[in-house]
Amino acid sequence: MSAHLPSTEPADLPPGPWLSLLEQQGRPAALADRQGDLQVVSEAFARRLGHSTAELRGLAIAELIPLARRQELDGLLQEFLQGQLPELKLPIDAEAPALRLAWLQEADGAPASWLLLELPERRLERRAFEELLREHGGAVALLHLHLQQLDLVQGKLGLEAGEALLEVLAHRLAGCLPPAGLFCREGGDRFLALLPGRWSREAVLQAVDGLLAGLEQPLTLTQHVLEPAFHVGVARSPADGTAFAALHRAATRALELSHQPPVSACRLAEPPERGMQLRERLAGPLAIALAGEGLELAFQPILELETSRLVGAEVLCRWDDPVLGRQVPSDFINVAVATEQISALGRWVVEAALATLAAWDRAGHHLEQIGINISALQLEDPQGMPFLRQALVRHGLLADRVVLELAEADVIALSARAGDHLRDLHHQGFRLAMDDFGTGYSGLKRLSQLPFAQVKVDRSLIAAIDYDPMQQAMLLALVTTAAGSGVELVAEGIERSRQLQMLQSLGCRYGQGFHLAPPLSVAEMEASMAEPSGRWRADAAGRVRLGEG
Ligand code: C2E
Ligand code: MG
Ligand code: MG
């Protein structure tokens, strides 16, 4: 490590730029003078060594070396301090990587007066991370951290500022983690952190609190003061799984839940028995909501990516129970499936969605298509298909404006009879979509066996599309396959402008996601469709508003 200090800096003062760098970035580093006495110590450095900054200030470097090795290493340290070595690595802890010492060079070539001590960040490649997790399999907490403002920073200050911000936050993370903690960049605006040990709910929540307190300190980026904010999903092993994939899934799910009402900065993964508890808690109230006026619809716009033209909307069921509050859709949908209420729920959704579409037609808002989610059980329901047809007739609509979305996992497990029903629906003119494509293993095979008009690429396949060559190659292959077979491709879960740009350049035609538009209420949809231009664009906060042209 070498750096140029301003030559005007008097040698008996700590070098200003380094000082602020250490403090702002929270790097686990310190500065020592020519004699090897610590003069400036960052909080992160002190924390990693298990001391306070005051305890470390003034200490000779030799005193950081464990007693047992001090004599053996002292000669080397003296050689370094006399300027005979440009860099030195001192093992100060048997468990941790060595402390790195390097002279900071003066700009005018004068002998260096300051030396930088840096504890290496325990930052790993994701693959190494997975291996380590396997090693610690017995007991760890896995944190999935999501920085909220990256898009905003990139949009306002440029891509480089965004990268610089992530770099600062990576340094901070290194400094805030407990001594044995590890982290890696998960890509985009996300990090993964691994905290070895067995963690109680309270202990891990407290650890996350401490971590966020360090990470979310205001910082200055190209003269702008920014307060970074994170959301965190936490999974603990063994409660939430021992394999990396299971823990990662659980932490990611918890992170998603943290964004949903009630929004919270940190969510813990729920143990598997939660399914049973949910069922007990929600089955009764759901039946009441279904019988009464308890459910609502939201509509998430689907856009043609190249032109930002609104081409359709996915219908999403919402339930805000007067006693239990707003429920997470995948939770109550799962309960509806488990309690066989899904057919009734599906019929309610079909009726309400088609009624809304017909009302929009009458009001002069023409929406080409709506996507309605259906579950495999609905296809088995003898009343399900006649109901769909009757509802179309009742509302005077044509079947080709309705896309029936069936999740890949459901398609794979479909019975022969349900497959026949799907073919019937296709013959009646309904368009079929394979939803969440990429989450199963044989979706491609089924794609060739059933008459799908649309494939909705799951957001996990495009989560890293803006920087991961593998995801780019996979999407390109999908674009080519889809084009060759006349199937429309819709990318789900577009959250960043860079994902959008990459999808456009790879030739993916349609998409939906929070970056384009969140699910909207009926009134919000109507307000948006009433705009004459019909063009959509994201504002700085990532919400889509109708643009001028
Ligand atoms: P889905 O069919 O894949 O719907 C898309 C989900 O992704 C929606 O979640 C939507 O809010 C969410 N989403 C949209 N853009 C983004 C984004 O940029 N990032 C992220 N992280 N998420 C995004 P929602 O509304 O929570 O619904 C979850 C699932 O519940 C749906 O997944 C669907 O499988 C099911 N579901 C919802 N409504 C119905 C329904 O009426 N019937 C049936 N059978 N299933 C439904
Ligand atoms: Mg869907
Ligand atoms: Mg989907």
Straight-line N-to-C gap: 51 Å
Low-confidence stretches: 1-11, 538-549
CATH topological fold name of the largest domain: TIM Barrel
Overall residue-averaged pLDDT value = 84
Quick recap:
By secondary structure, this protein is of the alpha/beta class. It is built from 21 helices and 23 strands. It has 3 domains: 3-118, PAS domain (Beta-Lactamase, 2-Layer Sandwich); 126-270, Reverse transcriptase/Diguanylate cyclase domain (Alpha-Beta Plaits), CATH 3.30.70.270; 274-537, TIM Barrel (Alpha-Beta Barrel), CATH 3.20.20.
Give a structural overview:
The chain has three domains: 3-118, Beta-Lactamase (2-Layer Sandwich); 126-270, Reverse transcriptase/Diguanylate cyclase domain (Alpha-Beta Plaits, 2-Layer Sandwich), CATH 3.30.70.270; 274-537, EAL domain (TIM Barrel). The two termini are 51 Å apart. The chain is 42% helix and 22% strand. The protein is built from 21 helices and 23 strands. An eight-stranded mixed beta barrel has the order 13-14-16-17-18-19-20-21, surrounded by four helices. By secondary structure, the protein is of the alpha/beta class. Strand 3 and strand 4 (99-104) form a beta hairpin. The site of one magnesium ion (MG) has 4 residues, from loops. One magnesium ion is lined by residues 435-436, 456, 492.
